[in-house]
Amino acid sequence: MLDNIFTSILTNGTFTGTQLLIVTFTALVCGFIIAVSYMTKNKCTRSFAVTLILLPAIVELVIILVNGNIGAGVAVAGAFSLVRFRSTPGRGQEITSIFLAMAVGLATGMGYIGVAIVFTVVLSIINFILNITEFGNFDEHHRTLKISVPEDLDYEGKFEDIFDKYLDRYNYEEVKTTNMGSLYKITLTVIPKAGISTKNFIDELRTRNGNLDISLGRMVDNRDGL
Question: How distant, in Å, are the alpha carbons of 2, 8, 103, 111, 187 from that of 12?
Fold first, then answer.
């Protein structure tokens, strides 16, 4: 019984109208599951959600049409390469979801309905659990502090006493010049102490940096791109 589930419903590269409807419907359902799984705890545009739903069906149709035709397969591979190079870089999870959608499209295009369904359900459940539990997420207490200082100010050791007063931990991430070299912009990753006054913290920093720009906000992690 189990072996029958994982066998192909297509044979010798031929298919009927009923078989085409079955594999297309399966691809669309799997794409919908993948999209819902990705949208859990993730920022997702309508365009990307629709893409995840339709992509398996598109890949499935392409695989059915080029089955056994090497020349057509090479042409399709070239077309996919053009689409890839016209795309903007994405986050790791976005690219993973696209690859999952394409893998499901390949499975349904070859007639392996059981493989496509099981593969989609298992990986989507795992993805859903990882998103719900926020696995691998950095500490929510981390903040990014940016301080602008004049070029003639020796910033080393200038702010440490204020940091010790208001922060549990801090780490210098980047120092760069700005405004034609007339200013330094210092970027730190910090963990504020519980119950501190953000206003008082920034006010004390302003007395040391000549009342130039200071920003304190949530840390944005942009290192998950591929």
Answer: 22, 10, 21, 11, 62
CATH 2.60.40.1120 fits 143-218, yes or no: no
Burial of 160 (0-12, 13-18, 19+ CB in 10 A): exposed
65-91 core/surface letters (b: 16 or more CB in 10 A; e: else): ebbeeeeeeeebeeeeeeeeeeeeeeb
Give the E-state strand segments of 96-166 in sequence order. 143-150
Domain ranges of the chain: 2-132, 143-218
Per residue in 56-77, pLDDT (tens digit) is 998 888 888 777 565 666 666 6
CA quadruple 199, 204, 210, 214: dihedral, nearest 10: -40
Q: Which pLDDT tens digit goes with each residue over 176-223?
A: 988 887 899 999 999 898 888 989 999 999 998 888 999 988 766 555
Q: Kindly report whether the global pTM for this prediction surpasses the value 0.85.
A: no
